[in-house]
Write a structure and sequence with these properties.
Blueprint (H helix, E strand, L loop, with lengths): L6 H13 L7 H7 L3 H4 L9 H7 L10 H10 L5 H10 L6 H11 L9 H13 L5 H27 L1
Helix pairs in contact: 1-2, 7-8
């Protein structure tokens, strides 16, 4: 939608939107629409703005931009359309490297065996890690369930035994 708007008008719209208080309907839509794909699309979600990260993260270093991670991916995907570029960023960032170990450990240590087939889930995680298929949303759903099960089922069972 915003690709047809001249860059000077996009710049003005972005500046106007920046003045609006957070929470105003449409502010985020305008801000994202006035940025290039490389500036606005970080992966599955860009949740916190930089100034918010400073409020929540004790050791936030604003000189370490997410673009340090995504720029090489966008550079490698220049021949693709925007949707394919976003998929390329997703499949090459989500549950890779440092998060892969955490996800693998979370799945292996889960006690939700009556609901989750760990062997097949770990295979799915490995296929995702290698970049053959983007299973990010499916894995997110499974891991969220496993964490929910741990907090609300497993820990309740431990508390009941302690009583």
């Amino acid at each position: 939608m915003f690709s047809y708007i001249p860059s000077s008008l996009k710049h003005a719209l972005k500046h106007i939107a920046h003045v609006f208080p957070d929470g105003v309907k449409g502010k985020s839509f305008i801000e994202r629409g006035c940025c290039s794909l490389e500036e606005r699309y970080v992966g599955n979600a860009k949740i916190f703005k930089d100034y918010e990260k400073m409020d929540f993260l004790k050791n936030y270093n604003k000189s370490l931009s997410y673009t340090l991670v995504t720029k090489p991916l966008y550079d490698a995907a220049t021949k693709y359309d925007d949707i394919t570029k976003m998929q390329y960023v997703d499949i090459n960032t989500w549950l890779k490297n440092e998060l892969y170990s955490w996800a693998e450990s979370t799945i292996k240590n889960s006690m939700a065996d009556e609901y989750i087939n760990k062997e097949n889930t770990l295979k799915m995680l490995e296929v995702h890690r290698t970049g053959h298929i983007d299973y990010s949303r499916k894995l997110w759903t499974i891991i969220t369930f496993i964490l929910w099960h741990k907090v609300f089922v497993e820990e309740n069972k431990l508390q009941a035994k302690a009583i």
